Amino acid sequence: MAEGAKEKYVEELVDQSDDFSRWYNQVVRKAELADYAPVRGCMIIRPYGYAIWEHIQRLLDARFKETGVMNAYFPLLIPRSFLEREAKHVEGFAPEVAWVTRGGGEELEEPLAIRPTSETIIGYSFARWIQSYRDLPLLINLWNNVMRWEKRTVLFLRTAEFLWQEGHTAHRTLEEAEERTRLMLEVYRSFVQEDLAIPVLHGRKSENEKFAGALRTYSLEAMMRDGKALQSATSHNLGHNFAQSFDIQYLDADGQRKYCATTSWGLSTRIIGAIIMVHGDESGLILPPHVAPYQAVVVPIWRKDADQGAIMEAIGRIERMLKGKVRLKVDLSDNTPGWKFNEWELRGVPVRIEIGPRDVQNNSVVLVRRDNRAKEAVAIDALETRLPELLAEVQQALFQRALAFREEHTYYAETYDEFKEIMSEKRGFVRVKWAEDSEAELAIKEETKATLRVIPFDQPEGGVQGRCFYTGKPATCEAVFARSY
Amino acid sequence: MAEGAKEKYVEELVDQSDDFSRWYNQVVRKAELADYAPVRGCMIIRPYGYAIWEHIQRLLDARFKETGVMNAYFPLLIPRSFLEREAKHVEGFAPEVAWVTRGGGEELEEPLAIRPTSETIIGYSFARWIQSYRDLPLLINLWNNVMRWEKRTVLFLRTAEFLWQEGHTAHRTLEEAEERTRLMLEVYRSFVQEDLAIPVLHGRKSENEKFAGALRTYSLEAMMRDGKALQSATSHNLGHNFAQSFDIQYLDADGQRKYCATTSWGLSTRIIGAIIMVHGDESGLILPPHVAPYQAVVVPIWRKDADQGAIMEAIGRIERMLKGKVRLKVDLSDNTPGWKFNEWELRGVPVRIEIGPRDVQNNSVVLVRRDNRAKEAVAIDALETRLPELLAEVQQALFQRALAFREEHTYYAETYDEFKEIMSEKRGFVRVKWAEDSEAELAIKEETKATLRVIPFDQPEGGVQGRCFYTGKPATCEAVFARSY
Ligand SMILES: [Zn+2]
Ligand SMILES: [Zn+2]
Known about the structure:
The structure is a homodimer.
Chain A: H1 2-10, H2 20-30, E1 34-36, E2 43-45, H3 47-66, E3 70-71, E4 77-79, H4 80-83, H5 87-93, E5 98-103, E6 106-114, H6 119-129, E7 138-147, E8 161-171, H7 174-194, E9 201-204, E10 216-223, E11 229-239, H8 241-246, E12 249-251, E13 257-259, E14 261-268, H9 270-279, E15 296-300, H10 308-322, E16 328-330, H11 337-346, E17 351-355, H12 357-361, E18 364-369, E19 375-379, H13 383-408, E20 410-412, H14 416-425, E21 429-434, H15 438-448, E22 451-456, E23 477-482
Parallel strand pairs in A: 3-7, 15-16, 15-17, 20-21
Antiparallel strand pairs in A: 1-2, 4-6, 5-6, 7-8, 8-14, 9-10, 9-22, 10-11, 11-14, 12-13, 17-18, 18-19, 21-23, 22-23
The structure holds zinc ion (2 copies).
Pfam families (chains A, B): HGTP_anticodon, ProRS-C_1, tRNA-synt_2b
Organism (chains A, B): Thermogemmatispora aurantia
Subcellular location (chains A, B): Cytoplasm
């Protein structure tokens, strides 16, 4: 894609602070992460973007399996009657469903929905698979594509079709379902923080914001560099709702037939948008080493052809040494070194390895960090230990930087006037005392566009004192509001 | 699923030789590989079946990446106008397409096809991504779901929706495209033979049987235990056909704009059907160790409770010893040992590890092979080396047994009368001298239901002598006919 690449640098990347959403779109396109598809609202995930998703899948899947979850596959198409069985569920999803009405040259008797999510067809199957308490818990995960017909679309963040995983479990008791719901939120939290270097608030969603059909929804909320929140993963305790609609029962040890308690939980390609918006800077993408398709890029620098042999020999040694340890890209294209620096910075490779004639003479290379541009000369023989160490340092530094940013942009509002002032003048999260009033929540959203992102698990020791910032009623918790993606 | 499981053994597995297709369906259901979905023609791949697919994905994906292929994701929905651009292609696929006609509460202006395959939307994108010869070759693979509205469906073998991978590449010359088409067939061949232990014929499809829109199609054909053929993977040289329809051009080094030559190649969840039908026997499934979800199952055998402690301690040692080396299942359910033997034989686990009080005293266990029931006593300390070795022996033995079966059931017919006799009285592959006549091919199919499976790469040294078995015209090659799935 060399020709296309040459054109794309002619136009500089817009400043993050001038136009964040334009910066975002430029990064997605220039870094070749994704493209709009010729079908409205759908996206093509290009190889570089998809490689990030593959690392996400690999790392998250291993974490799921450690908790006893097994993967399966469920059909893409769901009969209309299934969606209609859980009243709240259909209310939430029906407006955004895409319908298949013809197949094999004939009109279908019943329209089939392209799954917006699979609770209903899972419910149908669980009812057939589960007979006794010995079959429980049943712990299933699906990696698949889903479709929600969105009006306004943004690559990765909101597209008609997206990729995700959806976990579905069935349990003997409501307590066990609650435990699993929280466990999966914790799995997401450690994954997002440790592997994606994104600090998150974890907690409960309000009644207004919970999943259509859930008893309770928990979520992770991350702060983007424009101060908006992005919901990074959700975990739903579905209680007996779907079990009752789909008749998921089991014979308990006491000889009684009882309803299962079920859960569901998901994380989608949306999270790639969060990686971009949490870590990126004026030069483009910065990828956390754990999920970077290339963790380091080697850029050879020769001034005359005679230098080439020794440099290529050294690069060969480096490749052999790092094989299976570091994901390495060697850029041998005929672009200039300066060009390559820009390109791989834009594409967010965590570390650059520069190697010129003098480096080869000294049997060393220069390592340049993407996040802070710090340079260090390292002996080639030491790369094997120093580079993985440096990548771990970058991973840590990204997390710390994002955490500092979030703390800097988190405010406490005592009154609604303060709240509105923060919302209109600053960007960020606003933490308030809250009396859990759904109508107040809607009024705040209407006036300020801020929504209740989460009621964090981390609450003041000994409970919340004082009154709700909006209604003046006795506060029951602290809540975090923000504008969001 | 203990209750359900108890019922399922009440009814015995039907004999393979009595009713092969009923045997097949019983194995798929009883081994909990897959289920019919409530949507006509669609399937649910259950965790045990999906785990086989995950191993297939992992092993095949690594082989693709070794040849420079990168994964990507393309949209599920394809505009009708795209399908119509390549005349042969639309003719081949239009009858089996499922159409989305409504989305987000509105009728769509143009119906959208659920992808039956992605050549057209790939063509659209390649045309935009490729500018110069420096962008070539472009090597992409997609792991996704596709839909073809089939009338008669069989789990794994023919379902309206299935999972697969589809590779798509673009090249500078027709020669390079041909080379890639053959390379990918070879990747499939080594994967299917080495990892799935399935011997295959490799070669070219006839004009009648090639992919809709291809210049040439190559395929792998495997023989099932009922003598029928199953096409296990295909690789298509698309020549300039799609490049012309979608205007995929590049600027060559000589300053000329030229059409790319493209290829596509695929392998689907169908291959799980082949694993079942090539290796299975009267007791159920036999899984090749490379893709078995569990490579060995530990069955403890205690007569009295007092035995339990020592046995459990030994099992703990075995688990620690084999961790990361062998995929192990320890069956601690309260079923009897005999029950467990039957269950895990039905589910095809390659090796059973029996451990009773006397074994523990001797510090040993008994290994039982699934394929031939051979038993051996092995010291627990030796398991770490002996078990992986035994699994490799089983993998080899499965391949050899299948190869011997295929050779036993491959016939040579000199005349059409001989051919018809073999087709009506024996089961298997019939190899004939052939003059590549499409009308003759259709007539043979009409009369005998046998189709030309493949013109094998392996042809007689020095070319084919003599005349076509059907037309009497001078033969141009040897061809293999069979009934097929
Ligand atoms: Zn906490
Ligand atoms: Zn050969």
